[in-house]
Amino acid sequence: MAGLYLHIPFCKQACNYCNFHFSTSLKSKDEMVVAICRELALQKNYLDGEPLETIYFGGGTPSLLDQRDLDLIFGEIFKHYPVSMQPLEVTLEANPDDLNPLKISDLRQTPVNRLSIGVQSFSEADLRFMNRAHNDSEALASIQNAQAAGFDNLSVDLIYGAPTTSHEQWAANLEQVFNLKIPHLSCYCLTVEPKTALAHQIKKGAAQPVDDEHAAQQFEFLMEKTAEAGYEHYEISNLALPGHYSRHNTSYWQGKKYLGIGPSAHSFNGMSRQWNVANNAAYIRSLQAGELAFEIEVLTPTQRYNEYVMTGLRTKWGCNLLKIKELGYEAHFAEGAKTFLLDGSMEREGNEFRLTQAGRFLADGIAAELFAEEGNG
Fold this sequence. Notes:
- The chain is α/β, with parallel strands linked by helices.
- It has helices at residues 29-42, 67-80, 101-107, 124-130, 136-148, 167-179, 197-203, 212-228, 247-253, 280-288, 301-312, 321-327, 330-342, 357-360, 363-370, and strands spanning 2-8, 52-59, 89-94, 114-120, 154-160, 184-189, 232-235, 238-240, 258-261, 266-268, 272-276, 294-298, 319-320, 346-349, 352-355.
- The strands form 3 sheets. A 9-stranded mixed beta sheet has the order 7-8-6-5-4-3-2-1-9, with helices on both faces. Strands 10-11-12 form a 3-stranded antiparallel beta sheet, with no helix packed on it. Strands 13-15-14 form a 3-stranded antiparallel beta sheet.
- The longest helix is centred in the middle third of the chain and has 17 residues, at 212-228.
């Protein structure tokens, strides 16, 4: 089974923390849809005939696509790619300001059966700080509109750790989600990425820096309250009620094949990784000429080991020592893990190594300590 990711590189405005590839000009949207359809046709053999089990529209803001755009793209997908016999999970990321009743009605006419709504917060102060395009009332209405139209497979994005997000507001955000009976949450710590508007604002003193202790306290609160509400913390940033994991994202963490379509999209076939040009005009020009514009990297066993550790430790399933042995790094991993087993940030059950609750906030640092250098297996 394999996944298909489509990057829709358009947004109404730029959030100040975002470093993803997108454009705030929609002038080339029609040309982009045609180019995406052409890439779908040209890449039809990348997955070696493995049937799709998930399709994911990310971005950018995929909810800026209209029904005609989606119909064209789905037509090309189902023309060239076999589909799994089990129900296909088709996710579309959406901004709350796009999800009015008419838009949601149009989406119900497409194969989309899961919405990932970029709420980020139900606080107007938070939304203005992040320069989001929606307001607090739209954040709530988007969810209610989707549920009223029959979308019950919903995910909501929330951000914690912002200077404007008090502990009281963070508690209120989570309580709102619980009251709305949202089955899946993606919760991210506000991160100051280089060359973003937020990084510039902090450097100039126009915005407060992110307080790591403040963020850590809110992460601890997230784990506590979601556990009480029956959510499974199955990946560092993702929590779900039983049976509502994101199948698409889980396939990334479990190392399954996926094909990325659109500018800046990444693909992985188990042995190599490739990424498309991160430039809308260059992407469109290449597809108009019937060519693919991407770079490729064949992964060494060391790189495959490091990626497995990085992704595996983020999940509740952890890392399997037998898998690591196949890659030639069993001794290296076992020796490095001793420190974290002793300090309580990691636990072992048979061949499975997992982070404890205490270790989850330190996941990236722990993984980095366990990484290997070429030739040190």
